[in-house]
Design brief:
alpha+beta; five-stranded antiparallel sheet; 15 helices; 25% helix
């Protein structure tokens, strides 16, 4: 228990107070020497922590609640600032303290030190030198000890004179209004993809790190070497690409978990296996298991976006029955295994397959009059299993010779394929307790007559985007991050950005639009591309940050980026921070994504569930990279060097987070006149990303 804590006022006693005062006196004695010996000042100390060992019979009487976020923040604040640990052992039992030199310290490699901690033993330990461990007295002896940490000063920032208009930092901005129409809420989502994206924590980490998931074709899939040639202009039955984004372990499948026989699982298409695994992960987030589904039929629907089936064309692929690997069976098998009674279908609209599957499922879900569904599970899947499609893609000069999607870059010369499966589970209504975000608007359309069958049509894309924005009851400036299809073609990228520009310029923006794409990281996942992009949009909404786009060195000169207020994010860029309060207007991050193909087109818009405020109290740490950029819009050369350094640090994402807090602690002696107030802390602490 903590001494002098408001929650533990009953712990006060003469002995505890005396030991606590002694710790303060010792801290005062050693404080003048700390800067010379430790290399830093000692400015503060933590409250004393009173410790007693628990016997086996007592452990069940004490709860072990999960730490709150505030407690975690306090712990890390102490951990990163502590320089000395002070321990007073009160006995009567004798414990054993083991001090092990830390790697990299001045005593690294030295033998560990063992101290018999009897009554009235006081230890002062350097945190940067020793690892501390304590073994309680044996034979059930009782022991009592108190400890505290001496802390170095916290991080401080001093701002010089700001040039420009600093009032913008105090301005109150209104976010998009709360949705009033029929709502579709995303309550679960899951992914298994290249770049080791087996869950959304790893997915977000991969995006933040700028991961390049492209690898050379693995020989476990196929031997590409007889078909590879450097000839790019006139390939003749060869491929000039030898890289793809590879999802490892697709050959693994636990058929017993889904009650599938060995014979059927051997002949089952790997894409179908992936849908079972990824869809099961989404259901598990709602507590739905295979065992429960066996006895509880559910009126829920399933849709899968899938634009090709390579498994049936493989010469040595096992065969079972004629219906085992039909394209529609990918969705039907999931409904069969999990006892789902709603619609079950596969959408094939090329690159937009999974978004069309989501759109149709959402429309059916929101029609509550005749056949209300409990939920809809939308998935997208894609695996590259043979060399045949690479040869065909190179013959049509669709593939990138560099084996990457150089989206928005001047070297954009084609796309690259990849592996991945993603799922999004949506329910009708607000679903406040389960909601991850809102799916506010979706639309689909077709190019009609364009330059060629596969060439995109800018006006058709613009019309589709407008439809989704209008359905979401939003205005274009209320979108903050735009997740583009962005395959990395010299023709497609400028047309798509041009369609975005035509929508955005209709109304003035208060901050630049951030544009990105996931294909620069993991390539074009074709039938699953839109599903993975939706998962990235959801993570963008949750974290309120725009992930960087990789392989972007020089902008494509054909991009229409200079004609509207937008930039292509090449580093982690925060969008908004702070907590919503009753007195502060709310700003919700809206993350649209446009997905185009030679077939239909679909746009989705997601609304954050955790809304952020733009109040005066939050202004100093409020997405400074965007606001400072607005101040310096007249030219960075006019800004002070300090401000430009701050802007660089913030844009690098090194210090600022959406829960930046100002921590103030006061240690006073209102009831104890002997204690002196030489220590106080009133420092703004910035947590790392």
């Amino acid at each position: 228990m903590w001494v002098n804590s408001e929650e533990n006022e009953d712990i006060s006693s003469s002995l505890v107070d005396q030991v606590d005062d002694q710790m303060t006196q010792l801290a005062e004695i050693i404080q003048p020497y700390c800067e010379d010996v430790l290399g830093c000042l000692v400015e503060d100390r933590t409250p004393a922590l009173v410790c007693l060992p628990l016997v086996q019979d007592d452990e069940g009487e004490y709860e072990s609640p999960l730490a709150t976020e505030e407690q975690i923040n306090d712990y890390y604040g102490v951990w990163c600032r502590s320089v000395l640990r002070m321990i007073h052992f009160g006995g009567p039992g004798k414990g054993t303290v083991t001090l092990t030199p830390k790697t990299g310290s001045v005593l690294a490699g030295a033998s560990e030190c063992v101290v018999n901690a009897g009554p009235n033993t006081i230890l002062l330990i350097r945190e940067d030198t020793f690892e501390y461990s304590y073994e309680e007295p044996k034979d059930g002896e009782e022991a009592f000890w108190m400890q505290c940490f001496l802390l170095k000063p916290g991080m401080e920032f001093q701002f010089g004179e700001l040039e420009g208009n600093p009032d913008i930092l105090r301005s109150v901005q209104n976010g998009p209004p709360s949705p009033t129409q029929d709502l579709a809420a995303v309550v679960a989502f899951s992914i298994q993809s290249a770049a080791n994206m087996s869950d959304h924590g790893k997915e977000w980490a991969a995006y933040l790190a700028g991961t390049d998931g492209q690898l050379e074709f693995p020989l476990m899939r196929f031997d590409y070497r007889p078909y590879y040639s450097d000839e790019v202009d006139m390939p003749n039955g060869t491929t000039f690409t030898k890289h793809m984004s590879v999802q490892e372990g697709v050959e693994m499948f636990d058929n017993k978990a889904f009650e599938v026989s060995n014979v059927e699982s051997e002949s089952m298409c790997p894409q179908c296996r992936q849908c079972l695994e990824v869809g099961c992960l989404s259901l598990a987030q709602l507590g739905i298991t295979k065992k429960w589904c066996n006895t509880h039929p559910t009126h829920a629907s399933v849709s899968v976006g899938c634009d090709k089936e390579e498994w049936v064309n493989m010469p040595e692929a096992p065969r079972s029955v004629a219906t085992n690997n039909q394209l529609a069976i990918t969705a039907n098998r999931f409904s069969y295994i999990f006892n789902l009674k709603g619609g079950s279908y596969v959408c094939d609209t090329a690159c937009s397959s999974s978004l069309v599957a989501t759109h149709l499922g959402k429309v059916n879900l929101l029609e509550r009059r005749w056949d209300p569904l409990e939920y809809h599970l939308a998935m997208g899947t894609n695996l590259s299993l043979t060399i045949g499609l690479w040869i065909g893609g190179c013959a049509a000069h669709m593939m990138s010779p560099g084996g990457r999607c150089f989206t928005f870059n001047a070297t954009a010369n084609g796309y690259n394929r990849g592996d991945g499966t993603a799922a999004v589970l949506i329910k009708a209504g607000p679903n406040d307790e389960e909601r991850v975000c809102y799916l506010r608007g979706t639309q689909m359309g077709q190019d009609g007559r364009s330059a060629s069958l596969s060439a995109p049509n800018g006006p058709a894309q613009e019309k589709c985007i407008w439809g989704a924005v209008r359905e979401a009851r939003m205005t274009p400036p209320e979108s903050t991050v735009w997740e583009c299809h962005g395959t990395g073609t010299s023709l497609g990228d400028p047309i798509e950005v041009g369609a975005v520009r035509k929508v955005q310029v209709k109304m003035p923006r208060k901050e630049p639009l951030m544009i990105g794409t996931s294909k620069s990281n993991i390539g074009h996942l074709e039938g699953s591309a839109a599903a993975v992009a939706m998962c990235k949009c959801i993570l963008t909404v949750i974290h309120t940050k725009c992930a960087p786009t990789v392989h972007l060195k020089t902008l494509n000169p054909h991009l229409d980026h200079a004609a509207f207020d937008a930039f292509f994010s090449t580093r982690l860029t925060p969008t908004s921070t702070g907590k919503a309060t009753a007195k502060c207007p709310l700003l919700a991050l809206v993350a649209p994504t446009d997905t185009r193909s030679s077939g239909d087109r679909t746009v989705t818009a997601a609304r954050s569930t955790s809304q952020r405020c733009l109040c005066e109290n939050c202004a100093q740490t409020l997405h400074l990279s965007l606001l400072m950029a607005q101040i310096l819009r007249t030219g960075s050369s006019k800004a002070s060097p300090k401000l430009m350094t701050l802007l660089t640090l913030v844009q690098n994402g090194r210090w600022f987070s959406r829960r930046t807090q100002s921590v103030k602690r006061k240690y006073s002696a209102s009831k104890r006149t002997k204690k002196k107030k030489w220590f106080s802390l009133s420092t703004t602490r910035f947590r790392g990303m």
